[in-house]
Structures are given as C-alpha cells and as structure tokens.
From TrEMBL:
Segments forming domain Ribbon-helix-helix: 14-74
Name of protein: Aryl-sulfate sulfotransferase
Keyword Cell membrane: no
Pfam families for the chain: RHH_4
C-alpha cells in the first residue's frame, strides 16, 4: 500500500527474509511483527522459520496477508502475549 503522496503507508515496516533459499521482502505493521516475534519465541523457533511455514501453506495468497491471517488466528487460539493482558490496544507500543 502507498500513501496519497506515493510513499509507504505510515506504520508499515518492510523487512527482508530468506524463504527456501530466496530473499524476499515482507511489509507488515509493527504490531504484526511484534506478535510474530512472540509467537516464534513461544514455539521455540525463529521468525524466519515461522514465516517459512506460513509461506508453505499460503497457496496463492499474498505473503504479507497470509502472515496477518496467521497471526490473527494464532492470537484467537493461543491468546495475546502476557504483557498485553488487560492493556488498552492504543497503549501497546511497537517494539523498539
């Protein structure tokens, strides 16, 4: 997505990841990167490995969209990370 001025959307962070030996870029909002990091840690794996799993099961879906759906489903099933319990979503800061 782009802003009206043609630049990247505010709050979108673009990161390079290696999937099956190929480098690709993924654009996600900071809270999704944070949640993905927590999910990977909780599962004892790396973010890159977790993204690889999402990639392997996404079919023709856009990778960034597939990651967002994966994170949403995981939070529904596993719940939010403990530090988010009772937090106002507006007060949750992106990782620094």
């Amino acid at each position: 997505m782009s802003s009206a001025a043609g630049g990247p959307e505010p709050g979108i962070l673009k990161r390079s990841v290696m999937i099956a030996g190929h480098r690709t870029s993924v654009s996600l909002e900071a809270p999704f990167w944070d949640a993905l990091r927590h999910l990977a840690a909780a599962r004892g794996t790396s973010m890159q490995a977790l993204i690889g799993e999402v990639d392997a099961g996404r079919g023709g879906q856009n990778l960034s969209s597939a990651i967002r759906v994966f994170v949403l489903r995981a939070v529904w099933v596993e719940g939010a990370p403990p530090e988010f319990d009772g937090a106002d979503p507006a007060d949750i800061a992106p990782p620094s």
